[in-house]
Amino acid sequence: MDVLHVILQILLGITSLLLTLLILLHKGRGGGLSDMFGGGMSSGLSSSGVAERNLNRFTIILGVTWGIVIIALGLIMRFSGAGDS
Question: Do the record's keywords include Cell inner membrane (predicted)?
């Protein structure tokens, strides 16, 4: 179980770095916090190119993987007693 814990921690580090880089690669669409709350009208999502759609898909897949790794690490720590020390 200890080897699985180390592998998941390494996978968490790699996916965290890659997810950060992928998010930074996305094109900015808004002008700030006002756009986040509906204050600005930006172009629709359908106007993005093939490369940007693929970047979106890869970012979503990596984000889901990141979440699964975090949940798996939490379950391992909870049930193995690693978090009790």
Answer: no
pLDDT at residue 27, as a whole number: 75
CB within 8 Å of 56: residues ≥ 6 apart: 26, 48
CB proximity list for 66: less than 8 A, separation 6 or greater: 12, 15, 16, 19
Local structure of 36: helix, strand or coil: helix
**Rounded to 5 degrees, what are φ and ψ at 82?**
-70, -25
> Does 18 score more than 90 pLDDT?
yes
Query: What's the predicted TM-score (pTM) here?
Result: 0.70
Query: Which residue reads 């970047």 in tokens?
Result: 55
